[in-house]
Amino acid sequence: MYAPPSSLPPTVSNAARGSSAHAQLVSSPPLAGPPRGRFADMILANATIYTADPARPFAAAMAVRAGRVLRVGTYDSLKEFKGRHTYELNLSGNVVLPGFIDSHVHLIDGGLQLARVPLRGVRSKDEFISRVQGAVRDKHPGGWVRGGGWNNDFWGGEFPTAAWLDDISPDNPVWLSRMDGHMGLANSLAMKIAGIDKNTNDPVGGTIVRTTEREPTGLLVDAAMKLVFDVVREDSVNERREALLRASRHALMRGVTTVVDVGSYFPGTSEEQTWQDFSDVYEWAHSMGKMMIRVCLFFPMPTWPRVSDLIHERGRSLSGWIHLGGVKAFLDGSLGSSSAWFYEPYEDAPGDYGLQLLDMDVLLNATLESDKSGLQVAIHAIGDKANDMLLDMFDKVVSLNGTKDRRFRIEHAQHLSPGAAKRFGEHGIIASVQPDHLLDDADSAGKKIGVERAERSSYLFRSLLAGGAHLAFGSDWPVSDIYPLQAIKTAMSRQLPGWEAPWIATERLPLDDSLKAHTISAAYACFLDHVVGSLAEGKYADFVVLPSTSWREFADDIPGHVLATYVNGKQAYP
User: Fold this and answer.
1) Does the structure show a pLDDT above 50 at 24?
2) What are the CA-CA distances from residue 45 to residues 90, 96, 551, 566 (Å)?
3) Beta strand pairing status for 100-105 and 25-27?
4) SS3 of residue 416 by DSSP
5) Residue 270, pLDDT score
6) So what's the pLDDT on residue 372?
7) Is 92 within the bounds of a domain?
8) Which residues span the domain enclosing 566?
9) Where does the record place the region Disordered (predicted)?
10) Which of 215, 230, 245 is the last residue of a domain?
11) Distance CA 257, CA 277 (A)
């Protein structure tokens, strides 16, 4: 067990705590000390503070002024900052953590999904159809029905087809994305509008799933989804603005104060949507004072010259709310959609090795130019071959462009060949991983790629850390829910509901490494470790208060919710 040092305050009895779960702000009398300008706005007292700062891992008190951490330490060491207008938040032992950082989200898409047909967790064909039918009833004829989050593995593996939907939606086109975002289901009307029939060719980097008679089933994989994206009604600017606000509130409820938003950019989608969201949604929210969480934005790699020009013109941080991260690309698809790129074929599809979505020479040249321009590069790779191809390419970039602090990111790094985990450490590559994805994949991976391959290659968190990689946790929301406390628990236990033993127990992480992957390591992964990720002097006072009233209680039973989330030292949730 990871125990805090003895400098923490003694455990407070339950009677003394009273209703510590709902700690109150208490006004305090002025004390002699620093001049008025140096007094704290707020002091957290009698807390169990995990700072994620190696210089002082734990503290009992923290002073905040002007939205930043003034000092952490013992209560006595902070008394000089207590003035007439300083508020004291007596936590009676409650655990405080740095605000969580989600290293990989599609934030606006997550907000949109909250208002669409919810298919996450559906466990039968009948329930799937019933949920869509309920949404159709609320639509006028001709109106698009959209939703997502379905996972066919939850009901035995059978893929849904247009035939599931046609009887209940004869007058409404339907588009339902799979939970991984690399496959979607269209009903027959949607396919008719998109011009998809037995004569339609598969686009480069995509697949139209067909029957033995070559009739489209309704399933579209990766770049083939663009055929529907080109005709589906686009969300209005106002809808996308509302989605940002909805998503931000949801993130705060989960204790997330900073996200890396990789944008509404998927195989088959337009590169322009991410840029439109930047100007029409993020800059609008910023100008109107509506930003609630911090964002680090990544843009489609083909647009790297625009990103470089924007940073040259306006700097990497437009404010404390909006940071410009770099560029993102896709090399392969996903395991669930059988489009992740492997050395060996899929067990259930001999001869199918997955999809390579980009030519390696094209990707290398774009990465070289992005890197020369000082942009951080993040590339999606899930299959073992895709990850190796990226590691080889990064070797070439370092050789050609020289050594520097570039913090290359591989998004997902889900299945690795023997020895690949050690290669991450050679250039300090970021493994941007999603623990809760293993909850979706553990049961199906053996069926997809074989039990032996799955158990030696999947979600190798501990091996990556041992090899010197920097680990950053995220959710890929809306693929998985934005839920750091659950992700931390998953990384530590790798225990699936109903399973007697953990999945690949040797890859479980201890609590401290799991917490850091959602805080300071996640901040490092997006070049924001100088302002967020730990509770240290001068950093933003972004933190969460948990219901646990001692470190031992927290370590033994990680709670499923936060009591409160603070941004800039001000309560943002509830």
Assistant:
1) no
2) 5, 11, 15, 15
3) unpaired
4) coil
5) 84
6) 97
7) yes
8) 37-99+535-573
9) 1-32
10) 230
11) 20
Regarding whether 156 and 73 lie in a shared domain, the answer is: no
What residues contact residue 218 under an 8 Å CB cut-off, 6+ apart?
Answer: 160, 161, 162, 163, 165, 185, 186, 187, 188, 191, 209
Whether 162 is covered by a domain: the verdict is yes
Q: Among candidates 70, 5, 77, which has minimal Cα distance to 39?
A: 70
pLDDT in tens, 259-270: 999 999 887 778
Decide: 103 and 473 in contact? Cβ < 8 Å: yes
Where does 302-450 have alpha helices with state H? 304-314, 360-372, 384-401, 420-426, 437-449
Residues 91 and 140 in one domain: no
More confident site: 132 or 498: 132
For the segment 126-130, the average pLDDT, to the nearest whole number, is: 96
Sheet harboring 100-105: ordered strands across?
100-105, 256-261, 294-300, 322-330, 376-381, 409-412, 430-433, 470-473
What is the domain count for the chain?
Answer: 2
**In terms of domains, do 66 and 123 share one?**
no
Mean pLDDT of 23-40: 48
Same domain, 84 and 167: no
pLDDT confidence of residue 37 = 64
Task: Among 202, 230, 258, give the residue marking a domain's end.
Answer: 230
pLDDT at 13 over 50: no
Question: What are the tokens at 281?
Answer: 């949604």
Say how far apart CA 20 and CA 93 lie, in whole Å: 8
- Which string of DSSP letters, residue by residue, matches 342-363? -SS-BTTBTT------S-HHHH
Is residue 316 a part of any domain in this protein?
no
Helix (H, G, I), strand (E, B), or coil: what is residue 80?
Answer: helix
165 and 217 part of one domain:
yes
Can you tell me the mean pLDDT for 358-363?
Answer: 96
- Domain assignment present for 257: no
Name the residue among 482, 508, 458, 491 with its Cα closest to residue 558.
491
| Pairing label, strands 206-210, 183-186 | unpaired
